Fold AraC-type DNA-binding protein.
Amino acid sequence: MTSTFATTLFDPDSTSCPAVARHLDFVDYEAEVPVHTHRKGQLIIALYGAVICRAENDIWIVPPHCAVWIPGGIPHSAKATWNAHLNYLFIEPGAAALPEKCCTLAISPLINALVDRLTHERVDYPPESHAARLTRVTLDELATMPQQKLSLPVSGNPKIRTMADALVSHPADRSTFKEWAKRLALSERSLARLMLRETGLTFGRWRQQLHLIIALQELASGVTVQNVAAKLGYESVNAFITMFRKTMGSTPAHYFSERKTGARQGDTP
């Protein structure tokens, strides 16, 4: 591991092309990218491993073959697993019909293939070049990708932030809602109202979403289901798998197997 930050790799605002793509293997860079911003919006696609982004008082998870979209001008940071292989697509404001807020997108094999192809193109391609035509198709397709709920609202409120930071650092902490209210010097009713107002979720739903995000990151980096369940404080592996299946629609094994199958199909001519 070097001490080089990934942000030194390329300045996306150095070109006015509608979109430019770059490939990044985090084995060559520091795993944590500090807070930064740029004019172009940024799509981060995880090909392998996973990355967690922080932006707009939310935490966003990018598991394999998904992407997080960060509109231009929004300060953000990222932390990748040691084995993360990512494709970045930097998009000029107004060049694509994409959301104005950060979100996680499902990414089709076609989008994966197109962005990967564009990583081999020069950043100052001519407007009527083959690269420009590929870019237009990519942006048109990208605008049709559905959003996924893979974010954790953490809020700028100091009490919610304190709780969030503590549970992100120690996700196995099974303190009850009553215990957290006492720890934050609030009544249970006040904390419940504050959680709903600041995050839109109850404490139970919020902690479950936190566990899901950490689980996706850990599983993508190669940690076993048994070890992930233990890290999150579940009494049994089955209890963890049940939570995962209820929120993601499949078991951890099937979830990652489906994404690997989709990636292979996308590589097939």
Summary: Residues 155-257 form a domain with the Arc Repressor Mutant, subunit A fold (CATH 1.10.10.60). The first strand starts at residue 19 and ends at 25. Residues 203-220 form the longest helix (18 residues). The chain has two domains: 6-148, 155-257.
